[in-house]
Amino acid sequence: MNDQRPSPNAAAYDALGRVFAASAMMALPGILGSWLGARWGVDWIGFVGFMIGPPIGLTYLLVAYRKSPRRGETPSSDSPDRD
Predict the structure, then answer these.
(1) Burial 45-65 (b: 16+ CB within 10 A, else e)
(2) Tens digit of each residue's pLDDT (9 = 90 or more) over 3-16
(3) Which of 62, 69, 79, 83, CA to CA, is 20 to 30 A from 45?
(4) Cα dihedral angle (16, 17, 22, 23), rounded to 10 degrees?
């Protein structure tokens, strides 16, 4: 089997992508809520968006990094082609 580890640059880009995704999950609900609140004339929607965004982003980060293999470990595979 092919037992290649990703390069350090690949691992860094992977982590960077996860952090950017979590940042978007934290900020976009509040931004969208503020826009909707201004459009509909309801001020509290933006506040609710900024209250639920960070927990959603933090939960995503915890789940995403829990599932990734640690440095030096190979990911486990449940594929049937394994002997």
Answers:
(1) bbeebbeebeeebeebbeebe
(2) 678 888 998 998 89
(3) 62
(4) 70
Query: Residue type for 62, please?
Result: L
Helices (H), the chain: 8-40, 44-67
Distance CA 8, CA 17 (A): 14
Q: What is the C-alpha to C-alpha distance for residues 8 and 27, in angstroms, rounded to an integer?
A: 29
The model's pTM is 0.66
Q: What does the domain layout of the chain look like in residue ranges?
A: 23-67
Note the pLDDT tens digit of each residue in 22-35. 999 999 999 999 99
Its sign, for the CA torsion 11, 12, 13, 18, is positive
Distance in angstroms (rounded) separating the CA atoms of residues 24 and 15:
14
